[in-house]
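If your schedule permits, I should be very grateful for your opinion on a structural question. Thank you for your consideration; the sequence and its tokens are set out here:

===
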Amino acid sequence: MALAMVATIGATLDAAPAEGETSPRYQRLWDDLGPRHKAWARQTSECESGRDKNIHGGGGTYHGAFQYMKTTWRNAPKSPGGDAHRYSWRTQAVVSVYLKKQDGARTHWPNCG
């Protein structure tokens, strides 16, 4: 019985985060960002979506707090793939900051970035 409990606990610790939760990897990436990048992420997502990680805009074309097209999200640096709205705000913010570092804010967020 004790062995079964240990196996169950180990599986729980190694499991992927539930939808909408921030994984340890993205939490570390967020923690490593400077205050300027964190402020940019908060301001940009507030402008784009009211910081709603689940929102769909543009008739369903844009997804998540930073209003990503699916192809942009999937190809962005540090993106976990899939669809942006399935991930936590913090995961979306990390991907957005790295995309901004790569391409510049005005490329992807011309009005809010």
